[in-house]
Amino acid sequence: MDSSSSSFQNAPASYYQSCKYDVFLSFRGEDTRKTFVDHLYSTLKQHLIRVYKDNETLPRGESIDQALFEAIEESRIAVIIFSKNYANSSWCLEELAHIMKCKDERELIVIPIFYDVEPTEVRNCKRKFGEAFAKQEAKNVDKAEIWRKALVDVSNIAGWEPKNIADGHESQFIKKIVDTILDRLFVLNSCVDEDLVGMRARFQDLESLLDIGSGGVRMVGIWGVGGSGKTTLATSVYMELTQHFQGYCIVENIRVETSKYGLTKMQEKILSALFKKEVNVHSVVEGKHMMKSMLCRRKVLVLLDDVDEPGQLEALAGKHNWFGSGSRIIITTRDKHLLRTHKVDHVYPVTLLSDDEAIQLFRRHAYNEEDPVEDYETLSLRVVSYAARLPLAIKVLGSFLYDKNKKEWISTLDRLKDIPEMKIVEKLKISFDGLKTMEKQLFLDIACFFRGRWTIDEAMEIFEACEFHPEIGIKVLRQKSLITIYDSEFGARFDMHDLVQEMGHYIVRGEHPKNPEKHSRLWKREEIKEMCSGSATMVNIKL
């Protein structure tokens, strides 16, 4: 539709993310303000698109020309509505010239609409449009050539003509324009995130499970250990798919937000976002009824991020029949059992990065390049080895080491042997904090004593002797991605991510990392030997 459509894909993502407005409207007020422009403006606003329209957006007290130019520069898309008297305004012609300048210099997307004129009239300045331009040309000789070139350039962009679309029906024509603008905006929004290293295949797998081309309602859960990229993956897929739905909504960090504000606020957020108006909910029960009755005929996309309690899903996405045909519900969680209990259609386990993906992600964060930096490659491999392919750990450490010298890198690596990076520990510890007391004891015992050392049968025998009744607890730990089980030559054994084990060790050491006599568990040979041969008092220690 627009010959500039390919150019916007080359613009840097940072430019679009910093834009204040989504759309700048350029028009001649006396021709279209109270008819077409007002209808277009209202429809854009209903879709939550940020629109600059001079009579409503212009800050009072600013010079008109400067404010308009800045608004153009701070917009992602410029929609120019050409009418018979457009060229009769020097302001409109100045706007147009600046828009075309920004198209060339800033990758501004330009969408021309030839409202009641032909593109050839604009290009060649003919008929009434040409008469209007001639008046301004006579008054502004020094600017006329710039304006004329802008008119030629913009008329060479394949634009929109109402009479040729939707049989001239204005409402249908506006709908098509708005749909196109939404498509453009969401392509810009879904530019591959810098953090999306290694996620392309996972992205495609998740899109396949969602299968938006099919009917019915689908709920898909994304499950994995903390820091594995669940939210990054879910958000990226969500941004890619929004234009296919009547409504869409992200509810972020539900675990924390629910504890702060309650489930009714989460229900209000979903309904308000999907219907683009304020919706009040007075109780969770009322919210459930409202969601089912209001959404059952509406095709929506909802992302529920970081769910950790069954009651959250029951209140926010109770059953498939709450939503209209074609709806998709994406859920991220650390708890696989929660997804199974809610009977989601698919569970997608997020795998850790490959070795190559891990080093690529680290390079991007540590020195903003994808190629190795001389003298730092060996150190980079040590950091990536420590992070054990966990995206969160790689990004945290890479960002910390950015602009540090070699001595600081070495010092950091040495320190990590004894003191873990707290941003990583706190993220992983969320899963531990949600365990019951006996489950916590099981986890700490496995982290300190049983990972890879004992067969599961041997470990379970010990747990039973301690009256831990471990069957259910072990199942919970697996469902929360805290432990895994692998087969060895001598039988199945417990395993876990290196940093999850380190988190367990950190919890045991607590506030006394240098005083093993105050720890609840000892697993290092030298500490056990020292405690047994020394005179220090041992209290409640497991060896």
Automatic annotation (TrEMBL):
Keywords: Leucine-rich repeat, NAD, Plant defense, Receptor, Repeat. SMART domains: TIR. Pfam families: NB-ARC, TIR, WHD_ROQ1. Residues 19-185 form the TIR domain. GO terms for molecular function: ADP binding. GO terms for biological process: defense response; signal transduction. InterPro entries: Apaf_helical, Disease_R_plants, NB-ARC, P-loop_NTPase, TIR_dom, Toll_tir_struct_dom_sf, WH_DNA-bd_sf, WHD_ROQ1-like. Coiled coil: none annotated. This is Putative toll/interleukin-1 receptor (TIR) domain-containing protein.
